[in-house]
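Handout, section B. The chain below has 244 residues.
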Amino acid sequence: MTDKGWVSEIFVSVQGEGIFLGKRQVFVRMSGCRMKCRYCDTPRQRTEKCMIRTSEAGRPVVILPNPVSAGLIQNLITCHEPREFHSVSITGGEPLEQTGFLSEILPGLQQESWKIYLETAGTLYSALEKVIRHVDIVSMDIKLRSATGKQTQWDSHRRFLKAARGKNVFVKVVVVPETSCRELEKAVHLVSAVDRKIPFVIQPATRRKPSLEKILEWQKSAEKSLADVRIIPQVHPFLTGKRG
């Protein structure tokens, strides 16, 4: 374990994706991700600076040098009142690339009555097992090749979802015009084989959306195997005014 880690920014905003859309959270955006998905809207590389913002639209108020200490991150979060927020969103980048750092931060936050909401690409199942006892909610992506430009890691996604089972977990799949019915069906079957009650979110890519007709067809097909299938676009572009 380590008491220092790489953090891009910390800010207060509302959740812009998935089944907890609109919930007020404190966000800790971890730096770095190996996936390099072509639709990614966040910096992929670690930076020399950690920026502390007052809100999604607010200007920087503090800039800290990276890496930052676990104690400092805890203090920045716990200066807020947990009753005023749904949870702390640990996002990225890919947070599970820094499990030692998370293992230093998360237990203390839970002791202070914070719920931990983990946003992840859903492939690093061994890393998840190291911190899962300190996580309350898992927002897991299934990265389709049509959307990311990378080979889908079906086996890793399957193992990850099994490791997350027992937590409040949902699956999010970003889709683009090139996404095929067969590709999406494979994702649906992966989830239903673990638990058909796991919520499944079809998220149209912000910059390259499939037609509404196609999305509705995918939802109808997925509902044959899953109990809860939702179409939820990303709302950050509407909140920030940044349309990519």
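Note. DSSP finds eight helices and twelve strands in the chain. Compare this with the example in section A.
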